[in-house]
Amino acid sequence: MSGVLGLAVVGCGQIATHHLEAIASRLHGKIVLRALCDPSEERRTVVASLPASKQLLEKDDAPKQYSLMDGLFADSEFFHSSIDILFIAVPHDLHERLALQALEQNKIVILEKPLAPTLSSCKVLVEASEKLVSSSSSGAMLIVAEQSPYWESVALARKMIADGVIGRIVTAAACYYESMRDNITSGSVDSTGGLGWRGSIARAGGGIAIDGGLHWIRPLREMLGRIDEVVAVTRYGLAPELGMEGESLGHAIFKIRPTSDDGPLTQPAGSECLTATYTCNMLSTAPMAHDMCPYFRVTGTKGELVIGGDGLAKEKPGAGGLRLYDETNPHGIDMLPKDRVGGFFLGFAGLWQEVYRICVEKDYDKAHETVVRASDDVRTVLAMYKSAKSGKWESTQE
Fold it and tell me: How many CA atoms lie within 13 A of 286 on its CB side?
């Protein structure tokens, strides 16, 4: 595969803008924007006019526009000669169908999280990815775009934990909170004052946990290990004006299996397994204490690591940073530059650097790993939903 890859964006919602900005920041000249697909001409026009989109053009040629992905496929000569990657960022219920259709065209498919909203759809996509690993001559590849592992604060915390900087891990907590007053990640309310498709359980698969809250489950797994069991409670209708059918609040306790039998994640004999708490909530317009409540707090026998709760403030210097508390630094010390700008969103750039590497090096095993891990994220959320109904611990593997 050549070093320059042609990109088609399928779904021109707000999340696509963050991905395009990341691609432009790190992969200018390596990925070229050549096509946009979306039923809304207005959304296509907005995305085409973004500074990041213009930076990704080839010889100032505007991206071709299509209302449906099928229209792009029908433009056969252009599609097969100019498009290498299809980035799919559409409502969750369309993920399985569109991803499979795109893979049938022997193209690289980058699929926005979640993998799919149901276990059956996740299974279909995992199996499709497995087949691609064993028949890599087709050129087709499936990669799930989950950026949180590439968030610098998470990546550094993971390394510090593994290096034993805060000793043996005792517990951890994750808190995802989102107010439409400050929202810049998931789109604003629609013309009716609701969340559009994101408010529908049939389309989204649930509420806030399977939406933005999913980004906070993966870091716990990256830092601590595999989530085996979940007990949870959920609440609905806390912001009725949003028209959200799924949960707007969730609390959970996760039982976690360490990734190795020794090291800082192992627990003392007789102390039971490592556990972590998880909270996700979405309100309508209430101000929220982003500067006071950490997104993540990991407690060890020698100290704590804290990821700040202002990581969605893209322009705020130092936002979403990582602080270490230990004997030497009892009041905490910043582990990343205080003038660093981008917070959580820097993870998109790291994600796309890895996506580009996987594509160019044809690393099918790594591509498949992204699919399997994304499936495990969804399994965790669906186990939460099941537990909230049963009132019992539920396995993530059932």
Answer: 12
- Contact present, 32 and 5 (Cβ < 8 Å): yes
| CA distance to 76, 156, 167, 223, 258, per residue, from 265 (Å) | 52, 16, 9, 9, 6
Burial class of residue 275 (count of CB atoms within 10 Å of its CB; 0-12, 13-18, 19+): middle
Residue 181: how many CB atoms within 10 A of its CB? Answer: 11
> How far is the CA of 78 from the CAs of 12, 81, 264, in angstroms?
20, 5, 53
Sequence-distant (6+) residues with CB within 8 A of 379 are 119, 122, 396, 397
- DSSP state, 31? E
One-letter amino acid at 262 equals: D
Beta bridge partners of 234: 250
d(CA 343, CA 345): 5
Strands 64-66 and 169-179: unpaired
Q: What is the pLDDT, as a whole number, of residue 398?
A: 79
Q: Say if residues 15 and 184 touch (Cβ distance below 8 Å).
A: no
367: left (phi over 0), alpha (psi -120 to 50) or beta: alpha
Phi, psi of 69 (to 5 degrees): -60, -35
Specify which residues 230 forms β-bridges with: 254, 394
282/272 Cα distance (integer angstroms): 32
**How many residues does the structure list for the chain?**
398
Residue 348 near residue 372, CB atoms below 8 Å: no
Distance of CA 397 to the CA centre of its chain: 21
- For the whole prediction, is pTM greater than 0.70? yes
Is the per-residue pLDDT at 183 higher than 60? no
- Identify the pLDDT of residue 188: 45
Does the structure show a pLDDT above 60 at 186? no
Tell me the pLDDT tens digit for each residue of 122-177. Answer: 999 999 999 999 887 788 999 999 999 999 999 999 999 999 999 999 999 999 98
Q: What is the pLDDT of residues 290-330, one digit of tens each?
A: 778 899 999 999 999 999 988 877 788 888 899 999 999 99
Judged against a pLDDT cut of 70, whether residue 185 lies above it is answered with: no
Extended beta strands in 166-217, E state: 169-179
Q: How far is residue 15's CA from residue 118's CA, in Å, rounded to a whole number?
A: 21
**In this predicted model, what pLDDT tens digit does every residue of 59-92 receive, in sequence order?**
878 999 999 999 999 999 999 999 999 999 999 9
